[in-house]
From TrEMBL:
This is Protein O-mannosyl-transferase 2. It catalyses: a di-trans,poly-cis-dolichyl beta-D-mannosyl phosphate + L-threonyl-[protein] = 3-O-(alpha-D-mannosyl)-L-threonyl-[protein] + a di-trans,poly-cis-dolichyl phosphate + H(+); a di-trans,poly-cis-dolichyl beta-D-mannosyl phosphate + L-seryl-[protein] = 3-O-(alpha-D-mannosyl)-L-seryl-[protein] + a di-trans,poly-cis-dolichyl phosphate + H(+). Gene3D superfamilies: 2.80.10.50. Residues 2-58, 66-122, 127-183 form the MIR domain. Rt/POMT1 and tw/POMT2 function as a protein O-mannosyltransferase in association with each other to generate and maintain normal muscle development. Pfam families: MIR, PMT_4TMC. It comes from Photinus pyralis (Common eastern firefly).
Amino acid sequence: MPHLVAYGAVVTLKNHRTGGGYLHSHYHLYPDGIGAKQQQITTYTHKDDNNKWIIYKYNTNDVKGVTIVRSGDLVRFVHLPTKRNLHSHKEQAPITKKHFQVTGYGENGTGDANDIWRVSIIGGTDGSEVTTVSSKIRLIHYLQSCALTSTGKQLPKWGYEQQEVSCNPNLRDANAIWNVEENFFQKLPNVSFKVYAPSFIERFLESHAVMFQGNAGLKPKEGEVTSRPWQWPINYRGQFFSGSAYRIYLLGNPVIWWGNLVFLIVFVIVFITRSIKQQRGYVKTLTVEAPNRHLEACAWMFLAWSLHYVPFWAMGRVLYFHHYFPALLFNSMLTGILFDYLLDVIPCLFPEKIGTTIYHTMMGLFLAILMYSFVNFAPLAYGMTGPSSSERNSTMSGLKWLDSWEF
C-alpha cells in the first residue's frame, strides 16, 4: 500500500472517532421526506467494497502521471461501485437537523459544484502531502463551508441501521476527522505495513476505548426484559431463562438478598458509630484490635461492592439483572464478616453462660434461615412445573412475595 495518496487512487476513508466507521454508500436512496431523494451516504463499521472511493481533482476525471493530494486541494470523491459523487447541499440531515444532508449525486463523475470538497490536514499547512493512515484530515464542503462528519447516530431500517453522515457547519467538530485507511494506486510503490503500525500503548488505549464505546451503545432487543440498577439490591424483578415444561426463573434468594441489604445498612451504622467512638476514646483498648479487623475487612468489601454497583447508575446502555451478581458476591462476603463480628461482640455484652447460649442461638437461626430459604426457592433454579404462581392451585403461589415477580 503506497505511503502517499495520489489522484486516481482508490481509497477508503475511516472516521477518526473511537470505533468510527468507513465512509460508505450503496444503491439505495433516502426515502420520501428525508431531504433530497438521492443516494444514501453512511458510515459502516465493517470492511466492504461499498466503502471504496476514487479521489479526483475537482474539475477533471483524467489522471495523468502521479500527482499527490495535498492539504488545501479541491477534490471530488467518486463512489467506486455506483459512480456517484460525494455531495452535500442545504437540506437537513436525516437525524441531526442542524447539519446538512450528505448524498451520492451525479452520473459517472459528472455532477455539480456541490460535489467539491477541500482537503485540510489537521496540524498541517497548505501544501502538506496527504499520507495513508497517519494524516488526519477534514473534508470541508466548498460551497456550504461545512465539515463532513459522522454523528454516530444510528439510522432507521431504511438506512440499514448504519450510522448517519452529515455536513456540520461547525468546522471544529471532533467527529469530522478522517484518515485514509486503504490506498490502492499502482503507479506508486507499496511500503511495509510496519510504517503504519501503532505502538503497543496506542493499540491498548484504542482497543479499550472501542470496548467502552461499544458497550455503552448496546440497546435492548424488541420485547427483551431489562432492568435498572435501583431494582437489583431489592430483588425487584427476575428474568425467565426457560419457558419449557421445566420453567427456570432467575431470581435472587430473597432472604439472602434482603438480608445482605440489611447487613449493608447495619455495617454503615456500626462503622460510623465505632469510628466516632474511637476518635473520642470511648472504645476500650482491649476490645479494639479483633473487632477492628472485622470492620476493616467489611470496609474493603463495601468498597468493592460500591465499585461493582454504583457505576451502573451512570450507564446509558441496556442493563440486566445479572449485572448485579459481582456486587452481590462482595455484599454476601460483607454479610458473613459482619455476622462474625456480631457473634464476637453481642455475646460479650452478657454473662458468659448466657453469652454462649446467645452465640449458639444466633448461629443456629442464621443457618436455619439459610436452609429454609434454599429449600423453598430451589424450584426457581432447578425447574418449576405446573401452574404459574399467579394461580391459586399453584405450589409456588405462596412464594410470590412481590407482585413484580413473574414466575
